[in-house]
Amino acid sequence: SCVFVHREELDHVYKLVYSSDTEEQRRGYERILVWKARCSSLPASVECTLELLHVILRDNELWPHIVQCNMPPYVEQQLQIMYSTSIMRFLNHLSSLFQDIHSETLFRVADRLNIPAWLVDIRHQSAHSNTLPPLRLLRTAATFARGWLHVCH
């Protein structure tokens, strides 16, 4: 990890990322990409935010075209894969913070952090099932994870 961001820039990007305006979110996302280019290892909370925001922005961009049948059918599955991956990485990060110390299950770690069991179930289905969770459920999970990062990190 490297330190190069001033507190003012961090606060500004935080406001952009958690803005209700999609264009501001995109600008915040692009700023974090600049940080990542400068430093290959960002704090895990920033990496998780970057990944969640990436798929949310991509979904906002693609979904109107999917609904109008202007995209190939596999694009919806690509979004499911992107959401599943970002949720798995979010939970894996949180798990790694506690499992090294206490060897706790992911369900216990999630419970300690006020993360609902259904989010862990989504992670398990994404990782171990033959089918991915439905897109609407993945969206809900990503929104929860992003909100959790906003409040807790």
TrEMBL record:
GO terms for biological process: maturation of 5.8S rRNA; maturation of LSU-rRNA. PANTHER family: RIBOSOMAL BIOGENESIS PROTEIN LAS1L. InterPro entries: Las1. This is LAS1-like protein. One of its GO terms (molecular function) is endonuclease activity. It holds the Pfam family Las1. GO terms for cellular component: Las1 complex; preribosome, large subunit precursor.
